[in-house]
Design a protein that fits this description.
Shape: rod-shaped
Number of helices: 3
Structural class: mainly beta
Strand order of the largest sheet: 8-9-10-11-17-16-15-14
Order of helices and strands: EEEEEEEEEEEEEEEEEHHEEEEEEEEEEH
Strand content: over 45%
Number of domains: 3
């Protein structure tokens, strides 16, 4: 591009007081005779008749008609012309409105642009699309050019004020409705190539017409802030979907949660290691047994053993000689003194063989059950094995005292991982929706990744 356009000149009126917006000057449309108001005085180049839609030459004493507009197509702006409000500490008045349209896949998409004016602060813009608002100012400097590669595609980048903006979308925009006055020549049907670059909450837009390019910087602004500043009744229209430079509501929350979770996980690991070190891991019982299913009473009790120390966990391990077979053990750990019983059951099965895919195996010959928080005392086991008729097994029962449990560690890890994982998924879903509206969707129709 050979030229960068700048904002229209700001021309204060003589004898006007700083901070005061002058009253509009009255005139009549030469086409339909309807009364009009000129709010920006000599700054105005074009003005649109609110009645017939004709575009007039504001620099001509007779307000020559430059373009006849279609009378049947009218839009009521969300911020009516003449609306005043204090924005960014300055009192502005809405002096112009235009609807702009792009067509994609045969569908028209419209957005509104509101021109604000203050005789001392000059012009600025508010844009609105489906409830999403941006506060826009014209840039007076060129950004730096850059490029980045994403998968098999590349995006242009622009760097301005220390921020990097990534190419989002390029489209041909046309003006489809005009209302109010403008400090530049504007016509129905005007066309520009619009290229948007995003760095939420900011958007850098480049509008090109021939050899001239206009750079403008927009900042995403909640509609409720616009409504409050300009004293509009009711509530601002609800925003629909995800806009190009809309801030991700999850922001850095996933990263913060992952960092916090990392600290807690480290603390849990240290706690578990210390618990493992101070635990006794004491073998208190071990006996070998043999069993064959004959249909007769098979239950028995073991010799009494001592569980000393403090209340802690107990591991019971069943080590069998099973081979392509199974066995089930009904078990109870019983306190000899109190009669309190801890009933549980364990199934052990081990199968193996060969098929067309080679060797395979299933299950195992060994199984361990953990009983939590068993108080000290004298105990014995009641054992009742079960198998298919005629089958038998040799097995060993062994008990280890004061063994730290892994279950609490896994539960704690899961509790720490779920929140950041959830936030990460929600944040990614938000970005997915954003970029699906761009020229660089995260997932293409063919299923490939572009981002």
């Amino acid at each position: 591009m050979d030229q960068v356009s700048t904002a229209p000149p700001n021309i204060p009126r003589k004898n006007s007081r700083p901070g005061v917006v002058p009253k509009a000057v009255g005139l009549n449309c030469p086409g339909c005779g309807a009364p009009m108001a000129l709010r920006t005085f000599s700054n105005a180049v074009n003005v649109s008749c609110p009645n017939c839609g004709a575009i007039l030459d504001a620099t001509d004493p007779k307000f020559k008609i430059l373009q006849e507009a279609q009378r049947q197509y009218k839009i009521t702006p969300l911020l009516p012309l003449g609306t005043r409000g204090k924005w960014k500490g300055v009192t502005y008045e809405v002096v112009g409105f235009q609807e702009r349209t792009i067509t994609s896949d045969g569908v028209d998409y419209h957005w509104g642009e509101y021109l604000l004016f203050n005789p001392y602060a000059g012009y600025r813009y508010l844009t609105e699309y489906q409830g999403h608002w941006n506060d826009v100012t014209v840039c007076r400097a060129l950004p730096q050019q850059g490029k980045a590669t994403y998968g098999t595609r590349s995006k242009d980048r622009l760097i301005m004020n220390g921020r990097t903006f990534t190419q989002f979308q390029t489209a041909n925009a046309r003006t489809t409705f005009i209302l109010g006055e403008f400090p530049w020549q504007v016509r129905m049907g005007d066309k520009v190539e619009d290229c948007d670059y995003v760095s939420p909450p900011f958007m850098l837009s480049v509008e090109s017409t021939g050899d001239e390019a206009t750079y403008s910087l927009g900042e995403y602004t909640p509609g409720k802030d616009i409504w409050a500043a300009f004293g509009r009744p009711g509530s601002a229209p609800r925003a629909e979907g995800v806009f190009a430079n809309q801030p991700n509501p999850y922001g850095d929350k996933p990263k913060d949660f992952w960092n916090l979770g990392g600290y807690f996980v480290s603390a849990l690991v240290v706690l578990f290691v210390l618990s493992w070190i101070v635990s006794q891991h004491k073998d208190v019982f071990q006996e070998n047994y043999s069993y064959r299913q004959t249909g007769q009473e098979a239950s028995f009790v073991t010799p009494i053993f001592e569980l000393g120390g403090h209340t802690s966990d107990v591991d019971l391990t069943i080590n069998t000689g099973l081979d392509n077979d199974w066995a089930y053990f009904n078990l109870a750990l019983i306190n000899e003194q109190t009669g309190e019983a801890y009933d549980f059951g364990r199934e052990v099965s081990y199968y193996h063989g060969y098929d067309s895919d080679g060797s395979w195996s299933e299950g195992g010959r060994k199984d361990t059950a953990t009983l939590g928080s068993i108080p000290p005392g004298r105990y014995y086991l009641r054992v009742e094995p079960e198998m298919d008729p005629g089958h038998g097994v040799n097995y060993t029962l062994s008990i280890e005292r004061d063994v730290p449990m892994f279950s609490w560690l896994w539960l704690a890890l899961a509790a720490l991982v779920v929140p950041p994982f959830f936030l990460t998924a929600r944040g990614w879903a938000f970005e997915y929706k954003r970029w699906q509206e761009s020229d660089f969707p995260i997932v293409t129709q063919s299923g490939g990744d572009d981002d």
